[in-house]
């Protein structure tokens, strides 16, 4: 299992409250921080996560992700030929280069982290300095010399909305995209399904296996292990297989990136209901959430979809798991329903929070409040 964590966010002191009470080196109390400077500090910590090679290696090595972008861009060749493109969060510059290869006349590769320097090197190595202009800084403040015909961006975090980078894309859309311009990708959808997590079952069952190996019965730790692994409020990022899925997946939200008002929706919370029935009997451990994004079809009939479903080839996004406090036994056709709200955490708006309301069979309705694991 890879220990690499894409987009691990630093807390940035967001939890400390309005005043920073720590003493500075000279023994004086540090000055209170304004909300604006706290946001700036937190954003900087966020961008810093992208200044190292590891995260870019993980993203570019994810063939499902990078090939989907390459194909999604290539399919839109006719719309990009001779046109201008803004790449929001260009990273090492790969998507900007795909756009240039697809015939874009000029690509503005905007990148807020120090990795922009490597993007510039890559652009130079590929002889594309005339076409691809790397612009350092947050897209919210960078000045472009013109409006653009298209925006490309890989903004999706764990559970789609961790990192809250979509707001930056929407900001760029409002400020720099020509009326009716192209968005790559153009939409995102969120799915949920109840799960019986075989890996978790294995980890709990491990404690009953110890006796066979060492002659010490440790099976009494099974319920302790279950509590430790499930009875917390973190969103766990873990890859599942289709076999872990207990019922037909339900789409609970669709975000059309061109939709007016989407930014306010993200702040208030993306919300959706679901209802499904269990395929068979199994211990239900919780729910898995995943997403897909869709690129406009271009000339092709079928739009290109980048899916992070457990039924499709694995991506570095894996799935976002929401564990119940303890397993619930379900039988075939048990009715499972609920509502999911995804919103920014109050302490750090880049950290994903999920409010889950659910009902399993005849049990009373329950709620659980989650935040993305550290
Ligand atoms: C998921 S990475 C994608 C990198 C690259 N486009 C790729 O596909 O390999 C997102 C990048 O966006 C940058 N980023 C995030 N928010 C930004 C903003 N508001 N302005 C500019 N860059 C931003 C991050 O520093 C990071 O390098």
Which small-molecule species are bound to the chains here?
S-adenosylmethionine
CATH topology of the largest domain: Hnrnp arginine n-methyltransferase1
The helix count comes to: 10
Q: Averaged pLDDT, please? A: 92
What would you note in describing this structure?
With 374 residues, the chain is an alpha/beta fold. The chain folds into 2 domains: 102 residues, Rossmann fold (3-Layer(aba) Sandwich); 185 residues, Hnrnp arginine n-methyltransferase1, CATH 2.70.160. Helix content is 27%, strand content 31%. It has 10 helices and 15 strands. The strands form 2 sheets. Strands 6, 7, 8, 9, 10, 11, 12, 13, 14 and 15 form a 10-stranded mixed beta sheet that branches. Strands 3-2-1-4-5 form a 5-stranded parallel beta sheet, with helices on both faces. Strand 13 and strand 14 form a beta hairpin. Helix 3 packs parallel to helix 5 and helix 8 packs antiparallel against helix 9. The longest helix has 17 residues. The protein is elongated, with a radius of gyration of 23 Å. The chain starts with 34 loop residues before the first helix and ends with a strand. The structure holds S-adenosylmethionine. Its EC number is 2.1.1.319. Keywords: Methyltransferase, S-adenosyl-L-methionine, Transferase. It is an enzyme of class 2 (transferase). This is Protein arginine N-methyltransferase 6.
């Amino acid at each position: 299992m890879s220990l690499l964590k894409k987009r691990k966010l630093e807390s940035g002191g967001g939890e400390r409250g309005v005043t920073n009470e720590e003493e500075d080196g000279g023994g004086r109390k540090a000055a209170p921080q304004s909300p604006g400077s706290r946001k700036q500090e937190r954003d900087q910590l966020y961008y810093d996560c992208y200044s190292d090679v590891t995260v870019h290696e993980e993203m570019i090595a994810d063939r499902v992700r990078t090939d989907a972008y390459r194909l999604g861009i290539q399919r839109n060749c006719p719309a990009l030929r001779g046109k201008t493109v803004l790449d929001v969060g260009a990273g090492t510059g790969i998507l900007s280069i795909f756009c240039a290869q697809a015939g874009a006349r000029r690509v503005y590769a905007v990148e807020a982290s120090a990795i922009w320097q490597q993007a510039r090197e890559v652009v130079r190595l590929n002889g594309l300095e005339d076409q691809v202009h790397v612009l350092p800084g947050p897209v919210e403040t960078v000045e472009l010399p013109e409006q653009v015909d298209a925006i490309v961006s890989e903004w999706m975090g764990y559970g789609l909305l961790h990192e809250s980078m979509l707001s930056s894309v929407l900001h760029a859309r409002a400020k720099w995209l020509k009326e009716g311009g192209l968005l790559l990708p153009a939409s995102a959808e969120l799915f949920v399904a109840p799960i019986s997590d075989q890996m978790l079952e294995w980890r709990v069952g491990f404690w009953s296996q110890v006796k066979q190996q060492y002659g010490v019965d440790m099976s009494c730790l099974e319920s302790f292990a279950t509590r430790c692994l499930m009875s917390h409020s973190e969103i766990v990022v873990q890859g599942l297989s289709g076999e872990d899925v207990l019922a037909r997946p339900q789409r609970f939200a669709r975000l059309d990136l061109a939709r007016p008002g989407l930014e306010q929706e993200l702040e208030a919370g993306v919300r959706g209901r679901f209802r499904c029935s269990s395929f068979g009997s199994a211990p239900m451990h919780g729910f898995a959430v995943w997403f897909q994004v869709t690129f406009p079809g271009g000339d092709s009939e079928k739009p290109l979809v980048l899916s992070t479903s457990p039924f499709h080839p694995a991506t570095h996004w894996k799935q976002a798991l929401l564990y119940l406090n303890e397993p619930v036994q379900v039988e075939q056709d048990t009715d499972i329903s609920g509502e999911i709200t995804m919103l920014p955490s109050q302490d750090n708006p880049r950290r994903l929070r999920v409010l889950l309301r659910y009902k399993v069979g005849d049990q009373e309705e329950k709620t659980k409040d989650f935040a993305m694991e550290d």
